[in-house]
Amino acid sequence: MPSDTERHPMPSAAAFWTKAAPKYAKSPIKDTATYEHTLARTRAFLPPDAKALEIGCGTGTTALKLAGDVKSLLATDIAEGMIAVAQEKPAPDNLRFATGIPGDAALAGEAPFDVVLAFNLLHLVPDLPQTLRSIHSLLRPGGRFISKSACLRDGSVFLPPLIWVMQRLGKAPYVGKFSAAHLEQTIAQAGFEIEVAETHGKSFNRFIVATRL
Question: How far apart are alpha carbons 159 and 171 in whole angstroms?
Answer without folding.
Answer: 14
